[in-house]
UniProtKB/TrEMBL annotation, chain A:
Transmembrane residue ranges: 12-40, 61-79, 186-207
Entry similarity comment: Belongs to the binding-protein-dependent transport system permease family.
Originating organism: Loigolactobacillus bifermentans DSM 20003
Keyword list, A-Z: Amino-acid transport, Cell membrane, Membrane, Transmembrane, Transmembrane helix, Transport
One of the GO BP terms on file: amino acid transport
PROSITE patterns in UniProt: ABC_TM1
Entries under PANTHER family matching the protein: GLUTAMINE ABC TRANSPORTER PERMEASE PROTEIN GLNM-RELATED (PTHR30614:SF7), MEMBRANE COMPONENT OF AMINO ACID ABC TRANSPORTER (PTHR30614)
Gene3D superfamilies with a match to the protein in the record: MetI-like
A Pfam family that the UniProt record links to this protein: BPD_transp_1
Protein name in UniProt: Amino acid ABC transporter permease
ABC transmembrane type-1 domain residues: 16-204
Length: 212, 244
């Protein structure tokens, strides 16, 4: 096992960096996009609610791999060439944002509706009430399920392996194809994923404690 | 001068007819108490006044503005008409002081220093200056409600609505809240109060309104309401809650 680690360290390290990079971009992107669609879903305007709902239902219910292949294969045919890393990261962002939208929506709806009524009758606009009262409370409620989404996101970034995205899983597959040492390689790959996800998991738990 | 006017107001929640042909005028400086069994539409009347509910038809005029008019700025109405809730609804993520200063800072554009100074004076007035830095979850129900009243007063409203402000309180807390409300009334505030506290009504209210099944059944000055209520249902209701 140590053999795999030492002999292929540079490939594994590069894979780790690609996985980390894709995950970070997708994490920030899906958090922003997911929050926007969550706000659409609870908007007072029906048209916006419908748009939010359609987005969430479509991308939550299509496999990540299908979304990714769409960007990797279909988009280049009509619009522009997209490399594997980019199409995988876009797919990951869109797919995860649908789940985050649902998580954030549930968090906002879990805040007692008396808070919004009090804020509005206090003269605050809808937007002011959201930013100063509802959102800060919703974030606390949302942290634990959001942590789950982030961990899923890091693991799901292995979709990059299918579109030549040079991530950890992709490098693992390459190593296996030259060494045929499947057992050791996949154990090492699994451990390297833990190196990314365990600290993330503990960080989310820390946030949960600090803000609760 | 009238502050609030209902003209032929109707309200439906789906098929449920919550308000039936409501006609009411509340003048500036008046303290009006609304009583009636639960489900009679008392809260719906209050919530309509500051736009938390919309009415189905009729006309509702608050501070000379027609609420049905698209040009009416509801934020402006709510700035002028404060509301105190049964369950307090203090901002859970803000300290007591921040609960009171948020509206003045965001809506009235007061400076931080000015809003804090005024908030502390209000906390002094409701006897909770020592709780300025506490969070709502650390307060008792009665303390929360007094903070909620201070929060409403900080907006310098022209009228205050109270939706069963003491119904969720332990009996020993009720007196403190009613004392604060009495002081506010003595300062000349226009008040519409939904409550079952008949002692408060008798002592502070100029007028009593009795509602049942979405209708105003009786609307008379406090003295005559208590001494000889015209309506049989009002009489029955009164005897039930007073002899209880």
């Amino acid at each position: 096992m140590l053999n795999i680690l030492t002999q292929h360290w540079s490939d594994l390290w590069s894979g780790l960096l690609f996985t980390l990079g894709s995950s970070l971009v997708a994490l920030v992107g899906s958090l922003v996009i997911g929050t926007v669609f969550a706000l659409l879903e609870i908007s007072p305007y029906k048209a916006l609610r419908v748009i939010g709902k359609i987005y969430v239902e479509v991308f939550r219910n299509i496999p990540l791999l299908v979304i990714t292949m769409f960007f990797y294969v279909v988009i280049p045919m009509y619009i522009a060439k997209v490399n594997g890393f980019t199409s995988g990261t876009i797919g990951l962002t869109i797919y995860t944002s649908a789940f985050i939208a649902e998580t954030v929506r549930a968090g906002i709806e879990a805040v007692d509706e008396g808070q919004m009524e009090a804020a509005r009758s206090n003269g605050l606009s809808y937007l002011q009430a959201m930013t100063h009262i509802i959102f800060p409370q919703a974030i606390k409620i949302t942290i634990p399920p959001l942590g789950n989404q982030f961990i899923n996101l890091v693991k799901n970034s292995s979709v990059l392996a299918f579109v030549a995205g040079f991530d950890l899983m992709y490098q693992g597959n390459l190593i296996v194809s030259t060494t045929f040492n499947t057992t050791d390689t996949y154990i090492v790959i699994g451990l390297l994923y833990l190196v990314l996800t365990l600290p993330l998991s503990y960080f989310m738990r820390y946030l949960e404690k600090r803000w609760a | 001068m009238s502050m609030i006017e209902f003209h032929d107001v109707e309200k439906y929640y789906g098929d449920f007819h919550a308000l039936k042909n409501i006609n009411l005028t509340i003048d500036k400086g008046e303290v009006v108490v609304i009583i009636g069994p639960s489900g009679s539409g008392k809260s719906t009347v209050l919530r309509s006044i500051n736009g938390l509910n919309t009415i189905s038809s009729g006309q509702l005029i608050v501070n000379n503005r027609d609420l049905a008019d698209k040009k009416t700025d509801m934020n402006k109405i709510r700035r002028d008409v404060g509301m105190v809730f049964q369950h307090f609804n203090l901002y859970a993520n803000k300290t007591v002081l921040e609960n009171i200063t948020l509206g003045p800072q965001l809506v009235l554009k007061q400076s931080k220093a000015q809003s804090q100074k005024e908030a502390m004076a209000l906390l002094e007035q409701v006897g909770l200056a020592d709780k300025a830095q506490s969070y709502p979850r650390m307060l008792s129900g009665g303390q929360k409600q007094r903070v909620a009243i201070a929060r409403s007063l900080a907006m310098k409203p022209q009228a205050l609505l109270f939706d069963e402000p003491t119904s969720a309180l332990d009996p020993e807390m009720i007196g403190d809240v009613l004392d604060v409300m009495k002081k506010v009334a003595e300062d000349g505030m226009t008040m519409v109060v939904v409550t079952h506290e008949m002692g408060f009504a008798r002592e502070v209210a100029n007028r009593l309104i009795f509602m049942a099944d979405g209708e105003v059944l009786e609307d008379s000055d406090t003295k005559s309401f208590f001494e000889h209520p015209k309506e049989e249902r009002a009489r029955q209701f009164l005897s039930k809650i007073i002899n209880h």
